[in-house]
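Problem 12. The chain below contains 80 residues. Write out its predicted structure in token notation.
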Amino acid sequence: SNAVAFKKISLASLIISLCYFFNLFINSNLKEFKFIYVDNMGIHTDMEVFIFLFAAAFIFILAKVFDKAVTFKEENDLTI
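Solution.
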């Protein structure tokens, strides 16, 4: 069940990344795109697309690792 939950979280993170990607091109001017900038409100970044994309990839890999671990555990439980 943990692997399934990780896959759902990975899919949600990928959807968020795609939403940020479309928002970047629809609602913003690319001339104002900055990786990291500081103003009166604090430190900001326009890299949300990549942050959520890497998070989705990392979480998906974790889901695969958990799935393999469950498979190995089930095989190990069947042996004497």
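Discussion. The two ends are 25 Å apart (CA to CA). Students who got a different answer should revisit the alignment rule from Section 12.3.
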